[in-house]
């Protein structure tokens, strides 16, 4: 089932890379999940995706504790008819899409580029030269003291 659905999705979307979410909610004993996979089945899904040869980032889940995951969870039986229905629904949805979606390149508004709250200086107020120098270079940018490693030593280094 997974290989058929993922093949349809890959053929339609034609991704250049894949982010695969592999949280515990797809495992059989997770009461929050619905896929009822064994650990081996989970690994097979990862293997199928990796066989496409695309750069793949595999992410895991988290936040599960023994109190949340109980062993006596009743599971919904996964019948062939149920799986065929899911497969058909996915194929139908993909068939009705016009083309592979993409993201347009757009300019980012300048107000979103700066994450800092910087106040603009008043152009009518003249600053002292020291204030201007502080804005141009950091205090540690050009250290010019006795312990300066870049200071000219006429070819000799004190050890």
Automatic annotation (TrEMBL):
Coiled coil: none
Ranges where the record places region Disordered: 121-159
Keywords: Hydrolase
Biased composition (Basic and acidic residues): 123-159
Taxonomic superkingdom: Eukaryota
UniProt entry tagged with the keyword Hydrolase: yes
Pfam families: Hist_deacetyl
Ranges of residues in domain Histone deacetylase: 2-73
Classification via SUPFAM superfamilies: Arginase/deacetylase
Keyword Hydrolase recorded: yes
EC number(s) stated in the UniProt entry for this protein: 3.5.1.98
An annotated Gene Ontology molecular function: histone deacetylase activity, hydrolytic mechanism
Gene3D superfamilies according to UniProt: Histone deacetylase domain
Protein name as annotated: HDAC3
Organism (species): Mytilus edulis (Blue mussel)
UniProt lineage: Eukaryota, Metazoa, Spiralia, Lophotrochozoa, Mollusca
